[in-house]
Write a structure and sequence with these properties.
Layout: E1 5-12, H1 16-26, E2 33-36, H2 46-49, H3 54-58, H4 106-116, H5 122-132, E3 133-136, E4 151-156, H6 162-175, E5 191-193, E6 196-198, H7 209-213, E7 231-234, E8 237-245, E9 248-256, E10 259-271, H8 277-283, E11 286-287, H9 289-294, E12 301-302, E13 314-321, E14 341-344, E15 357-364, E16 367-374, E17 382-384, E18 395-397, H10 404-428, E19 434-436, H11 439-442, H12 445-454, E20 489-491, H13 506-521, H14 526-530
Parallel strand pairs: 1-2, 1-10, 2-7, 3-4, 10-20, 11-12
Antiparallel strand pairs: 4-6, 5-14, 8-9, 9-10, 13-16, 13-19, 14-15, 15-16, 17-18
Length: 541
């Protein structure tokens, strides 16, 4: 290609973390950044921009926007296989997700802080979320919300439907938790609500990491930076492996529209490839040495933790008949998407102040479905490479329900929450009847187990396969995302989450990207240089 491609930073991936990092670093007009995206810019495509397509995208009805892949059969859910995929377009997963904006609670960040130090404290996390978000909604404590950031968040709908109000009242009566206004207010993490907070512009169109951080004031249509910004975006470009010189990451080998090329970094290479980050590390020689040698990959650093501790929230459903006169969504706001919901603690009574269950009302064709997510799974899966070909899908085992505690927890949600919600909903309006699972199934332990396994579904809350922790605590990166065992290589995305987040993962990925970008912009002082050892921590996961 003639001239050598050299930048200060190379960022792989344009999802929540990668887009924030590229924008934040290139705010310094002296800093050059190359941003890599395997897909294209589809921001103007109707299925991406129009939020009414969000739930269809979640079901992968538009394969052109996705990496294509499947995970290994899941032994504990009748050997079924689930898709192993994320967005393959500008914005990554944020361009194809269900748009729910859920911050991790302070209880989660207290665990992060105990392991990693004050950089990840609840107080600092809240301050950064305030910087990131532009909240368009109500809150009892607006001091915890941001109103001038780049990420538009819309609380919707403005006027909840009768169906949402009935569901919220039923959850309130069944659980004893009062209705809350703002579930992202750290003072009200638990309770039912009629209005979700969505990644949407005020007009209801999708807000992604691309529309928020790679918009026309940042990037020109030709992929170069706007207004003197030294940012280049390569689309239709796949990162094949990281290049090293004496254990220092100094570039990335790329496949751009069928052509091989290499780009070089003066300062850092940053991987923000989401579920593909673990595979990219292993292809680059960082991972379990035996696995790498079997694949014919030279070992740069032997770290058996790479690809381990993969986690995902469980997903099941309960379905109700409805009153034909009740609308699921307001006529004037189909972009509201959801019909109420709740965040609740473990129904067994353990940790009563801690979020453990997410309920989402999704109504369609005379049926009210409640999506049920268990947010504190104990099962741990893994990601492995099959060979040294970067275009071969990895072997992803999400290990659903492998730890029997997870199945017990999901059963308890049906027995203690769904059963009581059904009774209260019927009291409020007899048209609402639980039809799946039926009450006799909930009351029969073996039938309930079979129902959960047969109807088990899959979401995209994968996290933790490249854990942010000391090497001796199962870590792959340190508290600033720096990969253990090598220099100038960073991972920043949901794969480094150290303790499971209690909600959707995209907000955590935005926060991780922003936090690490800010650290990179700081000039290291003598104390930071000296402080190579992590603080004393506990493991816990």
């Amino acid at each position: 290609m003639g001239k050598k491609l050299i930048f200060d930073y190379i960022v792989v991936g344009t999802g929540p973390a990668g887009a924030v990092i590229a924008k934040t670093l290139s705010d310094d007009k002296k800093t050059s950044v190359l941003l890599i995206e395997a897909g294209e810019n589809n921001d103007k495509d109707k299925p991406i921009r129009d939020s009414t397509f969000a739930l269809e995208l979640e079901e992968h009805f538009f394969p052109q926007y996705f990496w294509q892949g499947e995970g290994v059969p899941q032994e504990e859910v009748d050997d079924r296989s689930f898709e192993w995929t994320t967005g393959r377009l500008l914005g990554g997963g944020s361009s194809i997700n269900g748009e729910q904006y859920v911050r991790p609670t302070s209880a989660v960040f207290r665990e992060w802080e105990k392991l990693l130090g004050p950089l990840w404290s609840p107080r600092r996390a809240i301050l950064r979320f305030k910087k990131l978000e532009k909240y368009n909604g109500q809150s009892d404590n607006p001091q915890f919300r941001g109103f001038r950031g780049r990420i538009n968040i819309r609380q919707a709908p403005r006027n909840p439907t009768t169906m949402a109000e009935k569901l919220t009242e039923a959850i309130e009566r069944a659980t004893g938790y009062q209705e809350i206004v703002d579930y992202n207010d750290p003072r009200t993490p638990l309770g039912p609500f009629t209005r979700w907070q969505l990644y949407q512009n005020p007009d209801g169109t999708r807000e992604s990491s691309s529309s928020a951080f790679l918009s026309s004031d940042i990037i020109l249509p030709n992929g170069s930076g706007a207004r003197g910004r030294k940012l280049r975006v390569f689309v239709k470009t796949t990162a094949l492996r990281v290049l090293f010189s004496n254990k220092r990451a100094n570039g990335v080998e790329l496949l751009k529209e069928g052509k091989h090329l290499s780009a070089y970094a003066r300062k850092k290479v940053i991987i923000s490839a989401g579920i593909n980050s673990a595979q990219l590390l292993m292809l680059s020689g960082i991972g379990p040495a035996n696995l790498l040698r079997q694949a014919g990959i030279p070992v740069v650093f032997d770290n058996p933790n790479v690809g381990k501790k993969l986690r995902n929230h469980t997903l099941n459903f309960a379905s109700f008949t409805t009153n034909p006169v009740d609308q699921a969504l307001p006529l004037g706001d189909p972009n509201a998407l959801y019909t109420g919901g709740a965040f609740l603690p473990d129904p067994s009574g353990k940790d009563p102040d801690r979020r453990a269950v997410q309920l989402i009302g999704i109504a369609a064709e005379g049926t009210l479905n409640i999506a049920i997510l268990w947010l504190r799974p104990r099962s741990r899966g893994s990601i492995k490479i099959q060979n040294n070909d970067p275009l071969t899908i990895s072997l992803a085992d999400e290990a659903f329900l492998v730890n029997p505690d997870d199945l017990e927890s999901v059963k308890n949600i049906y027995k203690m929450y769904i059963k009581d919600i059904a009774a209260k909903l019927e009291e409020i309006d007899p048209s609402y009847q639980l039809v799946s699972p039926t009450l006799d199934v909930i009351d029969d332990d073996s039938q309930l187990e079979a129902f959960i396994k047969q109807n088990f579904d899959h979401n995209h809350h994968q996290q933790g396969s490249l854990r942010m922790a000391p090497l001796t605590r199962g870590g792959v990166v340190d508290r600033r995302g720096q990969v253990h065992g090598v220099k100038d290589l960073i991972v920043a995305d949901a794969s480094i989450i150290p303790f499971t987040v209690d909600g959707n993962t995209s907000s955590a990925a935005f926060l991780i990207g922003y936090t690490i970008a800010r650290q990179l912009k700081k000039k290291p002082n003598i104390n930071q240089k000296r402080r190579t050892n992590e603080l004393h921590e506990i493991d816990g996961e």
